[in-house]
Amino acid sequence: MSAAFDVRYTAQLARLHLSEAEITKFQAQLSQVLAYVEKLEKVDVSGVEPTAHANAVFNVFREDAPRDWFTPEDALANAPRSANHLFIVPKVIE
Amino acid sequence: MELTSLSVAALQEKLRNREVSAPEVLRSLEARIAQVDPAIHGYLSRDFDAALKLAESADVSLPLGGVPIAIKDVINVSGEPCTAASRILQGYRSNYDATVIQKLKAAGAIPFGRCNLDEFAMGSSTENSAFGHTRNPWDTSRIPGGSSGGSAAVVAADEAFASLGSDTGGSIRQPASHCGCVGLKPTYGRVSRFGLIAFASSLDQIGPFTKTVRDSALLLNAISGRDPMDSTSLAEPVPDYTAQLGRDLKGVKLGMPREYFIEGIDPQVDAAVRAAIRHYESLGAEIVEISLPNTEHAVGVYYIIATAEASANLARFDGVRYGHRAEGAANLLDQYGRTREEGFGPEVKRRIILGTYVLSSGYYDAYYLRAQKVRTLIRRDFTSAFEKVDAIVAPTSPETAFKVGDRSDDPLKMYLADIFTIAANLAGICGLTLPCGLASVDGQMLPIGLQLLGKPFEEANLLRIADAYEQSTDWHRQRPPV
Fold first, then answer.
1. What was the ipTM of the complex prediction?
2. Same domain, B171 and B37
3. Do B22 and B102 belong together in one domain?
């Protein structure tokens, strides 16, 4: 399976630019890690349910009640760019 | 005895007897940090004036009244930076308190100082920090462990009375072991994760670093409990974790898992842990050999599940709402890609790539789903072991602290450093490490940690078993040469 591993393509999926040097290095390092984790192929998991979480807790609800929380100023306090209570991003619609 | 070398409990006694005031304590601590931290670099930042304000109005009658506590730089404290040791969060300032910080403040404690870590808590040596390595106080040419290396080093070097860290695959227990302090990873769901920067949400848990087992119990008392802001925190009752301390070990059964005493483990570590187990026997505990047959799969399962969760959690760092943003991007996708390229360090990039790959179309079943199934097998190992024993004793790490630079370019070798701590996170159980010996390596003494693993929500029992060892040995009194 690790033979199909392609850092360049996966980085695109992750919205992460990489340098050519990083691509070469990560390809080698992560192929080694994948070869290691592929030992799990040998484990018999027939009939075993997956565990997503340590505690089997389902449907945790809370009252939908208003409470004090961030003001717009608080929410924007760390924004790289903002104006008029909005985050500014590059234009996405032509 | 220097004020800064006191335990939390001993410090509180002095505060309550008015032998010392909270501002005096803070000033002594600041002086100690100024003296030793240039060699250790356990702190990324600290706000003395803000802490002094809290100290001046401290109510020493509260459970942790007037006690300064250092915080891993991945837990939000209002008004302070929270960088996760990443360039992507350089300049970020929290505008809310994590639940554990609200609880510490309500108990009278003073959050003081932001501790260094591996970037986004990803690593076992604190070498992945974007802001410089932390050094081991026992030998500054060695790593303190990680990812909470700063939290461990500052407690060991008496630059903090106690600290908070987070443990996803051993990030509290492994550095505590390497630095010679007590480190506790609570049961998953015992402590709220609200305000902790998420790494792997099904594994992360916040816990204390302390100089004694009693201090660990005191901090756990303060931070435990159900939180409406974290739906995975559970409403299990919070006992007084100090109540069971001092009880003898008659009738206690301790399991010795044969998979944790394997070839490749450092002989000095093996000998110290075996000696500790014999000591438990002499204290009245019964030692039972057990098997956790799926132990060998834990590292593989972990590096699939943890990276998968991390790749999703770190998607939020996009340069829009907070943190670093790349300049001059051609469009939004270019802005995401370049912001993340510039902001993340190599280990974080590696894990995002690995996590994205194991979740990607065509590979999900083979990697992620299979890992989740093997995780079930690992949980079952512990469930059946705990039918026979009250707790498990094992080494925390197969080795003592390694040299700075030894593994920084070999990810797989670095990942194997967590071989004995990871299973507890996958199973969601509680675990603790305490000092049980010193190894002599190249003429330096290096701490060895004894790991105790307990049933879910039985921290009280784990602390009692740890306390019995600590109270009858001297290892916790050994201090580093710094």
1. 0.95
2. yes
3. yes
Give the range of the structural domain holding residue B99, as residue numbers without chain letter: 3-250
- Residues of B with a catalytic annotation lie at 72, 147, 171
Chain A residues 61-80 with CB within 8 Å of chain B: 62, 70, 74-75, 77-80
The alpha carbon of residue A25 is apart from the nearest alpha carbon of chain B, in Å, by: 10
Within a domain: B282: no
Task: Nearest by CB to A16, from B335, B352, B411: name it.
Answer: B352
Say how many domains are in chain B.
Answer: 2
| Pair (B194, B312) in one structural domain | no
Question: Does B185 share its domain with B311?
Answer: no
Distances (CA, A) of B411 to A16, A23, B310: 20, 15, 16
Pair (B88, B217) in one structural domain: yes
Answer for the pair B220, B187: CB distance below 8 angstroms, yes or no: no
Contact status, residue B300 vs residue A40, Cβ threshold 8 Å = yes
The residues in A 15-54 lying below 8 A from B, measured between CB atoms, are 15-19, 22, 26, 29-30, 32-34, 36-37, 39-41, 43, 45, 48-54
Could you give the count of Cα atoms lying within 13 Å of B53 in the half-sphere of its Cβ? 4
Same-domain status, B318 and B218: no
pLDDT greater than 80 at residue A94: no
Mean pLDDT of B59-73: 98
How many residue pairs from chains A and B have C-beta atoms closer than 8 A?
Answer: 174
Same domain, B306 and B162: no
Contacts of B304 in chain A (CB under 8 A): 37, 40
Question: What confidence tens digit (pLDDT) does each residue in B385-437 have?
Answer: 999 999 999 999 999 999 999 988 788 888 888 999 999 999 999 999 999 99
pLDDT tens per residue across span B326-339:
998 999 999 999 99
Q: Is residue B468 part of a domain?
A: no
Rounded Cα gap, residues B272 and B341, in angstroms? 44
Place of tokens 């003592």: B400
Round to the nearest angstrom and report the end-to-end CA distance of chain B.
15
> pLDDT tens across B176-199, in order?
999 999 999 999 999 999 999 999
